[in-house]
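Suppose a colleague, Dr. K., hands you the sequence of a protein chain of 772 amino acids and asks what its three-dimensional shape might be. Before reaching for any lab equipment, you can write down a predicted structure in token form. Begin with the sequence itself:
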Amino acid sequence: MSACFHCGLPVLTPGRHRASILGAERELCCAGCEAVASTIVAGGFERYYETRTRSAPSAAPAAAPELAGFRGNDASLILERVTCGACLWLIEQVLRRVPGVTCADVNYATQRAQVAWDPSLTSLAKIVAEVRAVGYDACPYEPRRQEQIARKERRAALWRLFVAGFGAMQVMMYAFPAYLGAGDLSAEAAQLMRWASLLLTTPVLLFACRPFFAGARREAANGRIGLDTPIALGLAGGFAASAWATLSASGEVYFDSICMLAFLLLAARYAEAAARRRAARALDPLLKWAPGKIVSVGELLTLAPGERVPADGVVESGSSSADESLLTGESRPVAKRAGDALAGGSVNLEQPLVMRVTRTGADTQAAAIVRLAERAAAARPRLVEAADRVARHLTHVVIATALLAALYWGDAWVAVAVLVVTCPCALGLAAPVVLTRAHAALLRRGALLTRSRALEALERATDVVLDKTGTLTEGRLALRRTHPLGALNEIQCLGLAASLEAASRHPIARAFGGVETFPVEAPRHVAGEGIEARLEGRRLRVGSRSFCAGLCGPLEAHPAGSVFLCDEAGWLAAFELEDRLREDAAAVVSGMAAAGVAVHLASGDDAGIVAGVAARLGIERWQGGMTPQAKHDYVARLQREGRVVAMIGDGLNDAPVLARADLSFAMGGGADAAQLQADVVLLGNDLAVISETFSLAARAMRLVRQNLGWALAYNAVALPLAAAGWIGPWEAALFMGTSSIAVLLNALRPLAGAASWKASTSSFPSRSPSYS
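The predicted structure, expressed as tokens, is then:
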């Protein structure tokens, strides 16, 4: 009875189901496998059948109907029924061919796919159906299912480690008399021990070492030599030579070295996997958080003290405080009253609250944080790419050196030692573990890295450009005084200004909250200037004095005011606003200056106000009255001078300059446009996190350089020693494993050792003039 060419199951009805695969007619067991095989061939993925290491699973069922209701345009998918790397390659190619899919990346380590799509062209249900059409399964990421898969993989890794360790101990016992040179050991007894060692080493090679050979086969199929190739060559070469020596009853055998080598390599990889899992645990609280009840947008909920908020929303009534440490990293409770936002995952602490749900599921703030963090973790920083390139080149050098050494010495074991002793995997581990831990540590402190380049740029930054409103100040502007300039009274002027500001998220707009508003038409936001709209046929503007003057002409008298209101007929009012510097602003500025970073203040506020703030904070380089374009040009000029510039802002008008800077920070409470352009988003309101971010980045990059330096130095010394025949295979395995573990231990050192920036703090009221 023949086997199905696709899944390997017996073919019960020969001749009924066939498909032309790789230039020949192949027998298939059922209509499902026939459809799957035809889909693979028709899609141009026939190479899959050449590179797979095991038979594919049989045809999977159609996509689950519950996925049809999935909302959103991206998802992290758990891939199931995967047996080898060729399966993952096939899935990635299938996903990228789905019409409407804009991005599809498969993580070979976690067996997860990050997929983004155009909702107008496709849906998650259709995408999953395409995956299932080629015999696999996929579902949206769920921590519980991912943990089950991880536990299964850990058990398999431990079994492989156990088999290798048991084999190494037993074979070492059989090899012990040979090492002692026992003279009373007969030739028959020695040959019997060789055969016993061969039998014990075979399962070590076939079962415990299977990941190395599968990886080497994938690398060969893709035409790219990686980290598994030299290891697989060393193991296979050593086993073949020892097996031949056993069969011919002549020469030396090194079954003990092979088993010990396998055990040490597997132990190093298990330690590596444990380090990666440990480094990735920072997101676990957010990933594992799930609402205890299903809610819908617009629903009113009553939150008891101690109850976790099930979704994002707004407080309708009541006053209390909330623990938002899950999202912001700040342990201090945040006061909440009517009109304040509540984030899903936070905890109501004191009094009952009534909230209205505004966002659920994938639309919540917690989900957005997870998506940004996963995007940053999945990206490959330039330093990591450079280390990978060095590792790949080193692998080629190692293989060439091994061949030359074997030819020169006439001893295959010298080649095995060369292949084993070198440690390209240490180069591969040197950067990723540290960077992953740094991402996690910053997230715990309330700084979300959204791009992989951020850590590298943090260490190299020479200048920091600060915005004022919402960055150095609290951004909680309060209306201090209203100066009517026309026929309308204060209440009427406030109503008009609040109506125009209602659609804005600028800090100034919040100063007009709590005032009755009117519906406006055609609102237009002019970055750095103000807002224009129509109300009952009247054309109104609210914003800076120059912006309003463009509609109603110059203002003859100049009353004290931060924001002005006018219509086509003339000036209506000037509003005097008040803000306060953040309590930790002085400490952060002085700390950056003490660390040798040049601090700049660039604001759209009046020059007099900016000068006062700069003087109180000790900032020597400042400019006021700057438009968004002026800020952009200011940063560009610094960059032309060879400076590495970090920009910190929060407003809508900060988005262009944030995109221009080498590194950008956005305050968590700022405008969405600013956060989208930022490399680092501060989830809370603690400005001191900025200095911690710089310090931690410096510490992380120092560890990366130490690891890379150690890995390069080790290989530079070990490679010639092994090629000279001074290091045997067993010692090579020990040195290689020790090198990898040393890199891992250094990568797991605390990241909080760098000196923090501390200075005296001050807080004082200032008057915030215009849009900054």
